[in-house]
Task: structure prediction
Amino acid sequence: VPVAISFIIFLTSIFAEANRTPFDMSECETDLVGGYHTEYSSMKFAQFFMGEYAAMVVGSSLVITLFLGGWSIGFGLDDWLNENVANWVLKLLFFAFFFVWVRWTLPRFRYDQVMKLGWMVFFELAVINIFLTAAILYFVK
Result:
């Protein structure tokens, strides 16, 4: 249970750090109208997007390494897959699709909603998760 709570908190923070859709806050009128489309052109625009996708790949790699067993696909399916395909690549492609899918699905949050989500939900969940993990480690020992 504590690992699942940590996974959800960490995945949501990766979304926020990568500035993906639920957490990409529009800051002024030009961001609502055209945003970086009007400020950047050609290679500057490409570098902007490559930075976002690099953040997605790094965040997905961290989630895979910390929570999903790294290179192993898990659940006894390692022998089932072809040895020529790396398991971590499949996981990385899945999480890249997951990032894009969430962008397609969820609307943008307002500032007050993001602050309430961060301070009233995820902060309390993280503190409860710390105490729950400590209690489990204390009583299991």
Observations:
- The helical segments are 2-17, 29-33, 36-39, 42-67, 87-105, 111-140.
- The CA atoms of residues 71 and 88 lie 5 Å apart.
